[in-house]
Design goal:
- This protein is mainly alpha-helical.
- Helices cover 44% and strands 9% of the residues.
- A two-stranded parallel sheet has the order 1-2.
- β1, α2 (30-44) and β2 form a beta-alpha-beta unit.
- The two termini are 27 Å apart.
- The relative contact order is 0.16.
C-alpha cells in the first residue's frame, strides 16, 4: 500500500469538502479509495441521505488500463448528468515519482 488509511481518509474528506462530484479511482488500493470517498460523503451528512446536489458518484477501476479510465471520464462521466456540468478533471496521482508528463499524454490519447 502506498497510502496509509489515515492519509486516504483525510484526502477523501478534503475531496468531498472541495465539492468533488465524481471520483474515479485507479491503481493500487483503488477499491479502498472508492469506499473511503463514499464514507467521507456519508460522514459529511451525519450518515443521513446525501442531498442530490452534493452526491459524489464513485467508481473504481482495478483491472483497467489508464487510457480506458480517462476515456470513460471524458466520454461518459463528464457528460452523464444533464443537471450537473462536470467541467474540470482533477488527477491526484500518489506515488514515489512524478508521472505528470506520462499522465497528461495518456489523457490526451484517450
Amino acid at each position: 500500500r502506498i497510502v496509509d488509511a489515515d492519509v486516504r481518509e483525510s484526502i477523501s474528506r478534503q475531496l468531498v469538502e472541495a465539492g468533488c462530484r465524481y471520483a474515479m479511482a485507479w491503481g493500487i488500493d483503488c477499491s479502498l479509495w472508492d469506499d473511503s470517498i463514499d464514507l467521507a460523503a456519508l460522514e459529511k451528512f451525519g450518515f443521513e441521505d446525501v442531498p442530490d446536489d452534493q452526491f459524489v458518484m464513485t467508481t473504481w477501476h482495478e483491472n483497467e488500463i489508464m487510457e480506458d479510465v480517462f476515456f470513460y471520464a471524458k466520454s461518459n462521466a463528464m457528460l452523464s448528468n444533464d443537471d450537473l456540468e462536470l467541467a474540470a478533471l482533477f488527477v491526484l496521482d500518489l506515488g514515489h515519482e512524478s508521472r505528470e508528463d506520462e499522465i497528461r499524454a495518456i489523457h490526451e490519447r484517450a
